[in-house]
Amino acid sequence: MSSQPSSMYHDGHRELQDKFDGRRMADALEKHRRFSEFREQDISFIEGSEFFFIATAHKQSVDCSFRGGAPGFVRVTGPRRLEWSDYDGNSMYRSLGNALRSRRVGLLFIEFGAQPKRLRVNGNCNLLDGPKIEGQKMTVQIDADEIFPNCPRYIPDLTKAGASAYIPDETGASAKPDWKSAEDLRAALPENDPHRGQ
């Protein structure tokens, strides 16, 4: 398991904290709001989420990506570990390709509504082979070492219109996105893409 870093802050963080008199608050937040293991409310929030954002970087390749699914698609599998199944996408692998070379990742979970929430999870990424159902490429596993709730005050109260029609069902099957039928892209779909022959 990953151990928690000694500090959340490097000299760039400290420079700006000192410039704007924020060091005391930054230290208080690190002391009282950074956790090394998931709490019950974190598990409930994560496993009830329908989406999150993942940030990755390797050298000049920087990526921030959206991941979505039915509630429960992200599973907390240990005191510091979570994972999800990765399905077919656009074959660019920008996020996971970065994570393959530089394992440090940042996840951001957000809940919109009258009682908004925000949770950051930073840690090391492992990509596990072994597709289990149609469309699944791999399991993505995160060993977290920084877990901290964030102030949700600027999160808007959005009306939920409904889940995406493209979320895989229990067999892994999903609706075909329009872009996979585009004349200039459809011939480039991977051989095992579940929508290739549709």
Average of the residue pLDDT scores: 90
- Give the overall shape, derived from the CA principal axes: globular
Order of helices and strands: HHHEEEEHEEE
SS summary, helix count? 4
Descriptive labels:
alpha+beta; seven-stranded antiparallel beta sheet
Q: What's the SSE blueprint?
A:
Blueprint: H1 11-19, H2 23-33, H3 40-48, E1 51-58, E2 61-68, E3 74-76, E4 81-87, H4 94-101, E5 104-111, E6 117-128, E7 136-149
Antiparallel strand pairs: 1-2, 1-5, 3-4, 4-7, 5-6, 6-7
Short summary:
This protein is an alpha+beta fold and 198 residues long.
Report what the structure shows:
It contains 4 helices and 7 strands, in the order αααββββαβββ. β1 and β2 form a beta hairpin. The model has no long low-confidence stretch (mean pLDDT 90). The protein has helices spanning 11-19, 23-33, 40-48, 94-101, and strands spanning 51-58, 61-68, 74-76, 81-87, 104-111, 117-128, 136-149. The chain is globular. The chain has a 7-stranded antiparallel β-sheet. With 198 residues, the chain is of the alpha+beta class.
